[in-house]
Design a protein that fits this description.
- This protein has 262 residues and is mostly helical.
- It folds into 2 domains: 26-173; 175-238.
- Helices cover 76% and strands 3% of the residues.
- It has helices spanning 7-14, 17-21, 31-36, 39-76, 82-107, 113-140, 163-170, 173-189, 198-261, and strands at residues 26-29, 144-147.
- It has a two-stranded parallel sheet with strand order 1-2.
- The longest helix is centred in the last third of the chain and has 64 residues, at 198-261.
- The protein is rod-shaped, with a radius of gyration of 38 Å.
- The N and C termini lie far apart (129 Å).
- Residues 1-10 and 189-196 have low confidence and may be disordered.
Amino acid sequence: MKKRFSFSLFLLCLSFPLFAQKATRIAYVDMNYILNNMDEYKVASEQLSQKVAQWEKDIEQKQADIKSREEKLEAEKPLLTSEMVKDREEEIQVLQQNLDDYKQKRFGAETGDYITQRWKLIQPIQDQVFNIAQQIGKTRKYDYIFTSDDAASIYADEKNDITKIVLRLLKRKDNAEDRNKEISTLLKENLNFEYKDERQRKVEEREKKYKESLDKRQKERERIKQKQLEEKQKREQERAQAIEKKKAEKAQQQKQQTNNNK
């Protein structure tokens, strides 16, 4: 079982006399140096960076689309009915909510794609670093091995730096093959971000409800329009019938008057 000890806990232990009496052997590993010198991490990180650039581009396009719709609505508002204004405002609200969800999905602080996928790229290397550090610790009788980000120290003796030793062991063929296989699988599976998570399903559900609501209102407007048209046609027909009736009555009166004159 892998164990990591915080630097503050280590300093606390040193404060006890019995612990301090023993010569404590420590070492540290610079994870950033290791990552920057691992070719497979560089390749995977570059692919992730390309995805991030595309996500940022998508966000900019969505923001520009929303702004364009808002400006167009503001300009055309005096010419639109209240229902048309409401429809467009609801459409903009849906697009804005979808954009917020997209930002959270890609760049959320805890569960965003960028954070989770970057961690998954680092993890195969980090796991091997921990295993190798444990082996070095047992062989060289180190009491503690820290990663450089654990210790906020202002000085560290280079003789305690085992980073290059760890890196050399990491690049051994057997370690590299296992790691490359794991990262290769990750690149094929986990860097394909076009999956539907719970957030995406909610976005699609909201869009579906909005479309259904829009269709319903459109059908209602068409029904009212059709009813008004039918009522207009009925009134015109009744008016035409009334005119024909008056004509017939007038003709009958004229005929009767002619007969009376005879």
